[in-house]
């Protein structure tokens, strides 16, 4: 099994570029962390493939956050930095008919809503995009989101599946981007080639050697740019959890204290559990509520 990679390349005439992504090992780790069944793991794998690939074509973005809503019952979250540091999660209402059907392998999703947040380097502002697609395919929904919200001549192809022999998850995808000044002839040649490709799964099984895959994905000679290894990275910490709590309105902090309950929080992305004792919450309240003329006593 090859290690995970994100391979950057252009055609030798520099009319278009593409990124080839192998994410199987990372997705197996995510599947184990979140204890996901197969249908949920495959949906999350497609979403994280898409998130890493999108981040790879946004030159000035620090990170991209995707939130994919499958009705109100099922939400997929993914986030990736420009260095291909990524993470993802699934939230769902276990007892709803949609989730129960998904867990049986029946994809009855009628609509996918995609929301993206992009932060630029050295810029505190965020760029936001939102699309709603009448499809149950993550690939289709993300391609429509690209056309509408990013306004780039790009195309995504994704495949996630369970290997019959190993029983482990496999995830492979590619994103193409037409560069400014591309000729009509080159555009048509590339699009015809893309349309004639088999699924990413079938292409991977024909020969999973990265060098051969890279050559098969485009109709022209390639020029490699770089290759990096995606990593599963979560930036959560005890300090960040307490930082969120200390910014709560004073009446909410007071309500927590009056209930005399310790705070238990779990990170969506890595499933790490955090514990904040009630004494710590009382200290937060006292520091926020203190003034020389105002008692910090809680009634």
UniProtKB/TrEMBL annotation:
Keyword Disulfide bond: yes
Organism domain of life: Bacteria
Stored SUPFAM superfamilies: Hsp33 domain, HSP33 redox switch-like
Pfam families: HSP33
GO biological process, one term: protein refolding
Keywords: Chaperone, Cytoplasm, Disulfide bond, Redox-active center, Zinc
MF (Gene Ontology): protein folding chaperone; unfolded protein binding
Entry GO CC: cytoplasm
Protein's name according to its UniProt entry: Molecular chaperone Hsp33
Species, as recorded: Fluviispira multicolorata
């Amino acid at each position: 099994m090859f290690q995970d990679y994100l391979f950057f390349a252009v055609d030798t005439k520099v009319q278009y570029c593409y990124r080839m992504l192998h994410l199987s090992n990372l997705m197996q780790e995510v599947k184990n962390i979140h204890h996901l069944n197969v249908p949920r793991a495959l949906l999350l794998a497609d979403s994280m493939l898409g998130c890493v690939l999108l981040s790879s074509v946004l030159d000035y973005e620090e990170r991209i956050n995707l939130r994919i809503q499958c009705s109100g019952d099922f939400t997929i979250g993914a986030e990736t930095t420009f260095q291909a540091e990524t993470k993802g999660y699934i939230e769902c209402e276990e007892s709803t008919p949609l989730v129960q059907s998904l867990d049986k392998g029946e994809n009855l999703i009628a609509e996918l809503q995609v929301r993206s947040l992009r932060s630029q380097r050295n810029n505190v502002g965020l760029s936001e995009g939102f699309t709603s697609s009448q499809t149950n395919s993550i690939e289709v929904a993300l391609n429509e989101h690209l056309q509408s919200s990013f306004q780039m001549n790009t195309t995504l192809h994704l495949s996630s599946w369970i290997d019959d022999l190993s029983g482990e998850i496999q995830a492979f995808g590619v994103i193409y981007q037409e560069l400014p000044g591309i000729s009509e002839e080159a555009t048509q040649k590339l699009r015809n080639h893309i349309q004639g490709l088999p699924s990413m799964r079938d292409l991977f099984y024909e020969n999973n050697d990265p060098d051969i895959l890279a050559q098969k994905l485009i109709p022209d000679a390639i020029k490699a740019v770089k290759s990096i290894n995606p990593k599963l990275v979560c930036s959560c910490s005890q300090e960040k959890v307490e930082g969120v709590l200390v910014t709560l309105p004073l009446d909410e902090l007071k309500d927590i204290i009056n209930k005399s309950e310790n705070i238990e929080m779990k990170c969506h992305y890595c499933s790490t559990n955090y514990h904040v004792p009630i004494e710590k919450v009382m200290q937060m309240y006292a520091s926020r509520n203190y003034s020389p003329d105002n008692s910090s006593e809680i009634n």
